[in-house]
Write a sequence for this structure.
């Protein structure tokens, strides 16, 4: 087996592992949201900024639950209006920042790992 074939094999194995981890996390989040959603939505009174923040942060987790066939809530129908909607938007953006920020974050490599540069002549 050549070095190129070995690299391709490692890449495909790495991709399969990443896909398996992604699917495992998605299933866990779907289950968790289905379990937690009854406690996160008030049955009495109006939902305000705090509930909007919570619902917005949890809303992306609803997708796996909905795909798995569970009918879960993603928005409180009885809310306080503008303050709830502002909290909802802030919650979605914070969740997106954490999720996408961690997905695309790459630690900086130390300068010690780079080969030394040659001095210009």
């Amino acid at each position: 087996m050549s070095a190129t074939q070995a690299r391709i094999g490692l890449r495909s194995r790495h991709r399969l592992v990443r896909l398996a981890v992604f699917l495992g996390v998605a299933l866990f989040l779907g289950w968790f949201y289905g379990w937690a959603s009854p406690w996160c939505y008030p049955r009495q009174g109006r939902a305000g900024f705090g509930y909007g923040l919570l619902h917005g942060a949890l809303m992306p987790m609803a997708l796996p639950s909905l795909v798995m066939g569970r009918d879960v809530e993603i928005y409180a129908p009885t809310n306080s209006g503008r303050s709830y909607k502002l909290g909802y938007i802030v919650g979605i953006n914070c969740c997106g920042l954490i999720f996408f920020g961690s997905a695309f974050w790459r630690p900086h490599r130390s300068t010690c790992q780079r080969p030394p540069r040659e001095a210009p002549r």
About this structure: The helical segments are 3-40, 49-58, 62-67, 82-104. Residues 3-105 form one domain.
